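We emphasize that the prediction below concerns an isolated chain of 103 residues; any contacts that depend on oligomerization or on bound cofactors are therefore not represented. The input was used exactly as deposited, without trimming of termini.
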Amino acid sequence: MNREYMTIWEFIVAPEHARDFEGAYGASGEWVALFRRARGYLRTELHRDRARSDRYVTIDYWESQAAWETFRAKFAEEFTALDARCERWTKSETVIGRFERVV
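Result of the prediction step, given as a token string:
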């Protein structure tokens, strides 16, 4: 049985790059555009910490872990290139975890 799969990332963003970061990681950004090319992608949420404005989390939703893994294999080159372009805006990037929805 496939369960909805999520990856949660934490980013600490350089304040002078917050707008660039939000543009790339937001609902109409480059990451969502790349993810939408893959089967099984559902949505991405971008959240900023209310207590610490340089801290963000993204939650990427996929139909299943298999859909995520297929995307990573098929789009590995594009993923790596986009990640390299975006990393100049962040001080750190951490995978908080990979989760599945409990029904």
